[in-house]
Specification:
Layout: E1 2-5, H1 14-30, H2 42-45, H3 50-67, H4 74-83, E2 87-92, H5 102-117, E3 124-127, H6 135-142, E4 147-150, H7 153-159, E5 164-168, E6 181-184, H8 187-194
Parallel strand pairs: 1-2, 1-4, 2-3, 4-5, 5-6
Helix pairs in contact: 1-3, 4-8
């Protein structure tokens, strides 16, 4: 089978990263507390405007994209899936990766290097435009994806009519249900569901 795997929220715990680094940053810089811990996007977690969001990521983007570890079990279970004969496609909407300038080239390079350092091997990586809601659906059609592993409801809702989706559990996607959607709580669950 062709298996699509998201990065942020599936291979990494971006929500956990934001909850670890966000509260001290927003409290110190803007006297702002957590507004909604169950939200996905940091702008919603802290109810912050774009200028505060930009300052947060300016300070933390490098640490996240270079040093944040892969989720426990991701490497082992992706290796098992590849050994079982499945083809792995990384399908990501990571910010800046679709830009055609130096920033885009750097963002793509950081992600490829991060995948390599974390031992995550794949057949192909597809960078989807983060500004287009169903860009991952288009990528899944083009790569003939049988199963997509994702955490964002907008992506899951777009992909589930054309492929099976494993919803990687998070506080912000607990309401995500439907036909062709199953839930995984960790990478061992992902492997078992695919088997």
């Amino acid at each position: 089978m062709n298996i699509g795997i998201d990065v942020d929220g599936v291979l990494t715990d971006i929500h956990g990263f934001n909850l670890k680094h966000g509260p001290p940053f927003f409290k110190k810089r803007f006297n702002r507390d957590v507004a909604d811990i169950n939200e996905n996007d940091i702008r919603d977690i802290f109810a912050c405007p774009d200028n505060e969001l930009a300052k947060y990521w300016k300070k933390h983007m490098f640490a996240y994209t270079v040093f944040e570890p892969a989720r426990k079990g991701a490497r082992k279970n992706i290796k098992r899936l590849r050994k079982d004969g499945h083809k792995i496609y990384i399908i990501s909407k990571r910010v800046f990766t679709c830009r055609e300038d130096f920033v885009g080239k750097l963002a793509r390079s950081f992600l490829r290097n991060w995948l390599w350092r974390n031992g995550i091997r794949y057949k192909k990586i597809v960078f989807c435009d983060s500004e287009i809601a169903d860009s991952k659906k288009t990528a899944c059609i083009e790569k003939n994806i049988d199963i997509m592993i994702d955490d964002e409801q907008v992506n899951i809702d777009a992909i589930s009519p054309i492929a099976k989706v494993i919803c990687f559990d998070a506080a912000y996607n607990r309401d995500c249900e439907g036909e062709n959607i199953v839930r995984a709580y960790n990478w061992n669950d992902v492997y078992k569901l695919i088997q």
